[in-house]
Design a protein that fits this description.
alpha+beta, 54% helix, 6 helices, six-stranded antiparallel beta sheet
């Protein structure tokens, strides 16, 4: 039932320690995964990280990373969700590291500001979609994504059970989870067409948000940063 596949990660998980690059989350919110492929808390735009290993996940480029501000927090993200640089100063090169951290901080401010602006849209859009099939589809997908972790937890508990009755309890729970997963998959398939049709008939209009003073202030701040960051792949954000 796992939806996210990590390729050739386990041998690298223990070996990876020295950064081979660095980066910043460049999207509003980036999905993140642990070493088993289970979803963990997503990373917000502007979060800084060090690349410990370039890997493949779901047949696409991905990174095994450590968060810059908390090296103990490690996870996998897809490369498409980040602005990344495959370079890192040699150990002991304090000046080189300082330069990278300064640039990383500037990029972080840019993408954090961009995410703050997008958050305005997401809040209003969530209210707009609250009673729609689009929301029901998102909820079903989110619940389905939690089932693999629940199943693994039940399997672990079943293996550690000290009585037959306890083992049967977790066995029944795993059956219920499988039935629920099947039901959710069917519901998702049904809702996909419904949600697409609903969105076509009820397009979300964010023009009012873009006229707000807060949006304009954030956009102005983005404009102030864009020219200096252009050499690092930053392109002008939409108005």
């Amino acid at each position: 039932m796992r939806l996210f596949c990590l390729c050739s990660l386990f041998p690298l998980w223990l070996a990876a320690a020295t950064p081979v690059g660095w980066g910043v989350i460049s999207v509003y919110e980036a999905p993140a995964y642990d070493k088993t492929g289970a979803a963990v808390a997503p990373l917000k735009g502007g979060v800084c990280f060090d690349i410990l290993k370039e890997i493949t996940a779901n047949k696409a480029p991905a990174y095994y990373i450590a968060l810059t501000e908390d090296q103990a927090k490690r996870c996998v993200i897809t490369a498409a969700d980040a602005k990344a640089f495959r370079e890192f100063p040699a150990e002991g090169d304090a000046k080189g590291l300082e330069g990278i951290r300064m640039l990383q901080k500037a990029l972080s401010e840019y993408y954090t500001t961009l995410a703050m602006r997008q958050a305005m849209v997401e809040r209003v859009r969530a209210q707009y979609l609250a009673q729609s099939p689009v929301k029901r589809l998102a909820d079903a997908r989110q619940e389905l994504a939690t089932i693999p972790a629940k199943d693994r937890a039940a399997a672990d508990a079943q293996a550690k059970a000290k009585s037959n009755a306890e083992r049967l309890k977790y066995q029944d729970l795993r059956k219920e989870l499988r039935f629920r997963a099947t039901g959710l998959q069917q519901e998702i398939k049904r809702l996909e067409a419904t949600a697409e049709a609903w969105e076509a008939e009820h397009p979300f209009d964010d023009s009012a948000i873009r006229k707000k003073a807060v949006w304009k202030r954030l956009t102005q701040r983005l404009r102030e940063m864009e020219s200096a960051l252009a050499p690092y792949g930053v392109t002008p954000a939409a108005d």
